[in-house]
Amino acid sequence: MFFNSFHFAVFLPIVFALYWFVLNKNKSTQNALIIAASYYFYSCWDWRFLFLLVFSTLLDYFSAIKIEEGKNQTSRKIWLWLCISINIGFLGVFKYYNFFADSFADLARSFGFEASPIVLKLILPVGISFYTFHGLSYIIDIYYKRIQSERNFVDYSLFVSYFPLLVAGPIERATHLLPQLKIKREFNFEKAKEGVYQIIWGLVKKVVIADSCAVYANAIFDNYETMNSLSLMLGAVYFAFQIYGDFSGYSDIALGTSKLFGIDLLKNFSYPYFSRDIAEFWRKWHISLSSWFRDYLYIPLGGSNGNTWFRVRNTFIIFLVSGFWHGANWTFIAWGLINALYFLPLLLLKRNRKNVDEFTMKFDWNSVHIVFNILITFAITCFAWIFFRSKSIQDAYVYINRMLTNLHFNTEYFKIERYNYELLYLLLFFIVIEWNNRTKIEPISGKYSSLKIGLCVAVLLALGVYSDYKEFIYFQF
User: Of 64, 244, 277, 313, which is most buried, counting CB atoms within 10 Å of its CB?
Assistant: First the structure.
């Protein structure tokens, strides 16, 4: 079930009505309803993989209790690593087994050996990376005694399976979400209204921006060998806005949906394309994943402590693992490596925490410098996205080589419904709106909110009806 589907448009009001007007006597019945709704939501993709979600929930629930009740450190550590190993094992089999099998076979052939790898015909369970990381953060926090284990199985099951974040995040922490699930929620009209606003804005990002850009990005990346330099540059830009509109739109819909049920989720995007360097970009892009790797991998590895070699090593580990988390393809690893190389000069010069403050624009040279840094950061981010979007390293290399050597900058005709210039105007308009919204808590609330809602709905109706790219990109991760 997609957030941008008619199915969800029917599903959400029904669950909302039952939640607030039928089963609103206590939080237990509300939680049970949301669990049932979440399992139905997940089963609409493929009901057979519900067993993985249930198994993961049971594994982490009982492992946390065993870790907490461990009589000594050895016992606690055994349960921790047993749980981690099983979780990563399932993730590895479904997501990475074929990648390693094929890579090993290719390596063997390069040395002259015959290799016929056994490939498993498995479907990647949607959301497995997200709910696995939910559970891992929980048991790690239990091990380090940051929180106590949750004994109410219904509450813990809801923490893992909560449908707004189940298949594509944000990656929640038990310290943030579980306390909200353990209390009775009271209906708050203002919060619900904010949720509706955020859902509509998320749909605009997805249906109007991401889906429009997807048409051109797909056309360019699928035919890159015949495209000129200008089209290939635009292809990278279109994909940059496609993935941002797609994923931040999903996150907005998830956060807005959750507000309808009186529950706050972690913010996942903070206008990352207005970042002044790559370190700031990664503090604002997919915040829940970046902070997860920081807290559960980077800091345990030593973080920024120690000598230069350890800091560089830890940085490369984080970015390479982040790339590999996105998928079993060398293109994602290359994408992570490129971002690590971008980050390295900032780390070595100790400038990675330089741009942590918000900035204001004035008519002075400092503002010109800020705009220049934003454009450079966006440009190198688009370059890295080429590897993320390409099917193989070879495809990315040919794409970049042709982009840099073709040197023809005339506009090309695309045999698709929308026109190139109109899309550029739409993106320019979107950038202006995002720039105006970057200092606001809610994008379309406040003064003239009714007019803004009307315009958003009008745009959805005008452009959304032509949307032919329905799936969310991060469903594949």
Answer: 64
